[in-house]
Design a protein that fits this description.
By secondary structure, this protein is α+β, with helices and mostly antiparallel strands. It contains 18 helices and 16 strands. Among the domains are: 76 residues, Ribosomal Protein S8, Chain: A, domain 1 (2-Layer Sandwich); 90 residues, Arc Repressor Mutant, subunit A, CATH 1.10.10; 188 residues, BirA Bifunctional Protein, domain 2 (2-Layer Sandwich). Strand 14 and strand 15 form a beta hairpin. It is flat, with a radius of gyration of 41 Å. Keywords: Aminoacyl-tRNA synthetase, ATP-binding, Cytoplasm, Ligase, Magnesium, Metal-binding, Nucleotide-binding, Protein biosynthesis. Belongs to the class-II aminoacyl-tRNA synthetase family. Phe-tRNA synthetase alpha subunit type 2 subfamily. One of its GO terms (cellular component) is phenylalanine-tRNA ligase complex. It catalyses: tRNA(Phe) + L-phenylalanine + ATP = L-phenylalanyl-tRNA(Phe) + AMP + diphosphate + H(+).
């Protein structure tokens, strides 16, 4: 165990007393406190702290001196003890004409494979050995082992008089390694004294009244100091990307839907959207249900009965699901699994507003909840971006055109559309975009035209159709900021420093 460095007070006293008698300290490694020479890196670190303190009072001045010494590596120590690879190969061979030449296989047995490989090459280069038939023999008498001599010199003195050329070659062969040393030369300053006075930091009223300020020494003010950086708030990367999506929707004439209702009834989250009560997504493994309160308020009774009827018996051109419709199932409370529950409630209001239906374009961006196991690409809580367009006689072609315009503004210019199934949209499409970085098509959204079974029970006129598409907020954020694990974007693994540093985005530059 290394003994602790002497106290700063003892080092300070030693430096001041030494300067008082000699006026100059050329090498701080020569200082000794209680018989301990301060030549280790740890000791010189303690010396540096004292020097900075004294220099701030202008009692001393110092300069840093950096030197380099060399130590042997494990291989270098082996050569220092046993000789170089080339000399060991030379010693293992016979003089020409005085014995059988040694083959490569025999040489490896005599000195080892590694020594034979390196030593044979260097011995040939030095012309110490020669080829004789199928083996090797000595070509010179008693060569000088220069490598071993150089390493012995370095082992004793930490350097070699041959200079940089020698040490560079030995470093290249990984026989030595450099070690940096820092020490200091010290001289007296303009306010040198063998005693350290306590510097005053403030000029007080009492000092002015008593006159004590005349005999006091004051600490200099550093007017160039910038001060401690202040910690301010910063937008999370999700909020930065969310703001860009909001601007895109506003540019396209959309209005924002209220999305502050995280707890929703199963009626609005599923039933009103024509999702069957027997659908697997409604089970506990996919949905978070609320225990208290146990049930929600009922919607408008006439609307509720129309929804029940279309599920059980059909209507509006549909045969329905022909399955029992449970009032208790629809009254359950849950954490909403999609923001389409908000869109459904807004469409119902649109159908029953004063003055009747009027075409609308609406969007929402907010959190939804799924009972999923968290991993690198999934969380139990994430954000959904959703847009809906309600108007007379709009078609699938209008939906595709809307999405092409929308995703072009987000930087996604190469799109493909694939037929899909959703209980509440028909036709339905998955949207894929070409990802230049990954070199493949990736799914970025789901879309479709809301079914008549969902819209007409609300009271929307027959000619009205509603287009909808949705995507997550996390995926484009991860792509934009090159984040591979969603748990480092949201949650306890988030790097708050990176939250502050990540810049705002402009998606239209092509961040697909």
């Amino acid at each position: 165990m290394t003994a602790a460095s002497p106290s700063p007070e003892s080092i300070q006293s030693l430096i001041l007393q030494t300067l008082s008698s000699s006026g100059f300290i050329p090498d701080s490694r020569q200082l000794a406190v209680d018989g301990r020479v301060l030549n280790s890196a740890e000791d010189q670190g303690a010396v540096r702290g004292v020097l900075d303190s004294l220099q701030s009072r202008e009692m001393i001045e110092y300069k840093q001196i950096t030197t380099t010494s060399f130590t042997l590596t494990d291989e270098g120590r082996t050569i220092n003890e046993n000789g170089s690879h080339e000399i060991r190969v030379w010693k293992a061979l016979p003089v020409k004409g005085q014995g059988e030449p040694v083959t490569v296989q025999e040489l490896q047995k005599l000195v080892g494979p590694d020594v034979a490989k390196v030593g044979q090459s260097r011995a040939f280069k030095n012309k110490w050995i020669a080829k004789d038939g199928n083996g090797f023999v000595r070509a010179v008498e008693a060569p000088s082992d220069e490598t071993a001599d150089q390493l012995r010199e370095i082992n004793e003195k930490g350097d070699h008089p041959g200079g940089e050329g020698v040490t560079k070659e030995l470093q290249k062969r990984k026989l030595i390694q450099p070690k940096k040393h820092i020490h200091y030369s010290i001289t007296k300053g303009s306010n040198f004294s063998t005693e350290v006075k306590q510097l005053e930091t403030d000029l007080t009223v009492e000092m002015l009244q008593s006159g004590a300020w005349k005999d006091s020494s004051f600490k200099q003010y550093n007017f160039a100091a910038t001060g401690q950086p202040t910690d301010g708030g910063a937008l999370h990367p999700l909020l930065k990307v969310r703001e860009e999506f909001r601007n895109i929707f506003f540019d396209m004439g959309f209005t924002e839907m209220p999305t502050n209702r995280f707890v929703e009834s199963a009626f609005w989250n599923f039933d009103a959207m024509f999702v069957p009560q027997q659908h697997p997504a409604r089970e506990m493994q996919d949905t978070f249900y609320v225990k208290d309160p146990v049930k929600s308020l009922r919607p408008d009774e006439e609307y509720y009965q129309r929804v029940r009827k279309v599920h059980e018996e059909g209507g509006f051109g549909s045969i329905g699901y022909r399955a029992p419709f449970s009032k208790e199932e629809g009254e359950k409370l849950l954490l909403r699994t999609h923001t389409t529950a908000v869109s459904t409630a807004m469409l119902y209001e649109l159908a029953n507003q004063k003055g009747g239906f009027k075409p609308a374009k609406m969007y929402s961006i907010d959190r939804v909840f799924r009972n999923e196991t968290a991993d690198a690409t999934h969380l139990a809580e994430f954000h959904q971006v959703e847009g809906v367009v309600a108007d007379y006689n709009i078609t699938l072609g209008n939906l595709i055109a809307f999405m092409q315009e929308f995703f072009a503004k987000t930087g996604n210019h190469k799109l493909r559309f694939k037929p899909a199934y959703n209980p509440y949209t028909e036709p339905s499409m998955e949207v894929f975009s070409w990802h230049e970085g990954l070199g493949k098509w990736i799914e970025i959204a789901n879309s479709g035209i809301f079914r008549p079974e969902m819209l007409e029970p609300m009271g929307l006129p027959k000619g009205v159709r509603v287009l909808g598409w949705g995507m997550s907020l996390e995926r484009p954020t991860m792509i934009k900021y090159k984040i591979s694990d969603i748990r480092t974007l949201v949650g306890h693994k988030t790097d708050l420093d990176q939250v502050k540093k990540r810049a705002a985005v402009r998606l239209e530059k092509g961040d697909d």
